[in-house]
Write a structure and sequence with these properties.
The protein is α/β, with parallel strands linked by helices. Helix content is about 40%, strand content about 30%. The strands form 2 sheets. Strands 1-2-3 form a 3-stranded mixed sheet, with helices on both faces. It has a 3-stranded mixed sheet with strand order 4-5-6, with helices on one face.
């Protein structure tokens, strides 16, 4: 499935690739209600997450300093279950089950101690995971169980 990016997202991905040397596949810009940018989520090509992070996190830190925003990195995956699990990192995901009835829903089992991490501040993490799951796997909803 091809992901359509706006100009800002394309520029962030270009800068990401220039700074990290890793291939960026997608970029979601999280904003507040007033339109202020608060975080980027970048989907990194499978197998390139370590390169994007760099030794002791220096590479991704350098990118964050350059753009002036915090960044979440998500490693791409070939199957939807693995992709959804990767999108919740660093939360411990025990299982992802995808149900296809009227809608396609991913049910995600996370450690009780990581529920807050999986939801994120103001629900930002789970909403971003839902957007990514829809864009990359045609999953209509993601639910924590």
């Amino acid at each position: 499935m091809a992901v359509t990016l706006d100009d800002d997202a394309r520029q962030y991905l270009e800068t990401f690739e220039e700074v990290t040397g890793a291939d960026g596949i997608d970029c979601i810009i999280d904003t507040e209600a007033d339109g202020a940018r608060v975080q980027l989520t970048i989907v990194v090509a499978s197998g390139q997450l370590g390169e994007a992070i760099g030794p002791d996190g220096r590479t991704v830190t350098q990118f964050q300093e350059r753009i002036g925003l915090p960044v979440r990195l998500v490693e791409d995956a070939d199957d939807p279950e693995a992709f959804v699990a990767n999108a919740f990192a660093p939360a411990a995901v025990y299982n992802v089950t995808i149900s296809e009835n009227n809608d396609t829903v991913a049910y995600v089992e996370v450690a009780d101690s990581d529920r807050g991490v999986a939801i994120g501040s103001n629900g930002r993490t789970i909403e971003t995971v839902r957007r990514l799951a829809d864009r990359h796997c045609e999953i209509d909803d993601v639910q924590l169980i």
